[in-house]
Amino acid sequence: MMGSMVRIVIGFAVVCGLMLGGAFTSAADSGFKYIGAKKCKTCHKKELIGDQYGKWAKAGHANAFKTLEGEKAIAVAKEKGISGPPSEAAECLKCHATAAGLGAGDVAKKPLSNSDGVQCESCHGPGSAYKKKKVMADHEKSLAAGLLVPDEKTCVKCHNDTSPTWTSFDYAEAKKKIDHSIPEDVKGKYIEVEKARKAEGK
Ligand code: HEC
Ligand code: HEC
Ligand code: HEC
Ligand code: HEC
After folding, report:
1. Which of 25, 55, 79, 173 to pair with 7, CA 20 to 30 A apart?
2. Which residue blocks in 125-168 are alpha helix, DSSP H?
3. What's the gap in Å between 128 CA and the centre of ligand 4?
4. CB-hemisphere CA count at 13 Å for 50?
5. What does the pLDDT read at residue 28?
6. Which tens digit of pLDDT belongs to each residue from 129-173?
7. Predicted structure pTM score
8. Which atom number of ligand 2 is nearest to the Cα of residue 75?
9. Residue 139 and residue 142: Cα distance in Å, rounded?
10. Domains of the chain, each with CATH number or no CATH
11. Which of 40, 96, 123 to mutate to test the pocket of ligand 3 (most atoms within 8 A of CB)?
12. Of 136, 138, 142, which is best to mutate to test ligand 4, by the most ligand atoms within 8 angstroms of its C-beta?
């Protein structure tokens, strides 16, 4: 009688643990690992492809960790009863830094840094397998290698009313604000365009 009760309780705890563990990260299950925004930078800082890295680096997501070091964050954390600095609190980092909450098995050789804030892979998925140029240039291959095409569901994991400074979220408007499209004239044919330009000595 007692034995089966214990087993039920343990079973319930295991299920809860799995559910919690899977809420934000599933890299370990897929085998794809996080490589960090600096790896994306090698190709995505080029003007020809649309400088996605530069656009990101200047805006809110890249600075989300820095925000946690500011006066306002400290006040917000105090109000929530968090004793230490918000830049070290898991309750804040989970939405302000990609690196937070990732285990050693989720990350490629070099550790990611919380100071990179919300980087590419929070929205596009861990990049270890899709980062190769030939894979990247092929949409279907990229998807098979773990690339995610972000949509509203991606955003509302963080843009929701559990954020202590929550006001509202309009997906269409927010998407426009962070626009970092590939220019129409190279989209889907970047490798050929780059080759042609090199041949012309540009
Ligand atoms: C991992 C959590 C997370 C995800 C996922 C996320 N955001 Fe954010 N976002 C933040 C945080 C944190 C801030 C506040 C950054 C700051 O100012 O410190 C923010 C700020 C913003 C801002 C205002 C700053 C700016 O750069 O203009 C926009 C717009 C925005 N997000 C759009 C989006 C969209 C669109 C998506 C989905 C495609 C998305 N976000 C997904 C956490 C996230
Ligand atoms: C559920 C995700 C989430 C959590 C958890 C979270 N934040 Fe944020 N935070 C955001 C998003 C998204 C924004 C962008 C603006 C918004 O929607 O409030 C943001 C913006 C901010 C801002 C800038 C707001 C402004 O008006 O300038 C501060 C400061 C901040 N967060 C502090 C914190 C602190 C401190 C914690 C921990 C106690 C925390 N956040 C936890 C998602 C989150
Ligand atoms: C907050 C979420 C978010 C972050 C962070 C983010 N992206 Fe994106 N990215 C998006 C969304 C949303 C789209 C548009 C998806 C769609 O609807 O086609 C997109 C599209 C793209 C595209 C394709 C554009 C096109 O024209 O097809 C590239 C390339 C890209 N992102 C690269 C990056 C790189 C590199 C980084 C980091 C330096 C990054 N993204 C960071 C959300 C994000
Ligand atoms: C070795 C160079 C290289 C690296 C590294 C790289 N990319 Fe790309 N990426 C490309 C090229 C080339 C394209 C295809 C451009 C085209 O022809 O449209 C592309 C396309 C994309 C697209 C659009 C793909 C689609 O099919 O919708 C996204 C999103 C993207 N990259 C995100 C990232 C992110 C995030 C990282 C880092 C984790 C990254 N890339 C690293 C070269 C690279």
Report:
1. 25
2. 133-136, 139-144, 152-155
3. 12
4. 15
5. 52
6. 999 999 999 999 999 999 999 999 999 999 999 999 999 999 999
7. 0.92
8. 35
9. 5
10. 34-199 (1.10.1130)
11. 123
12. 136
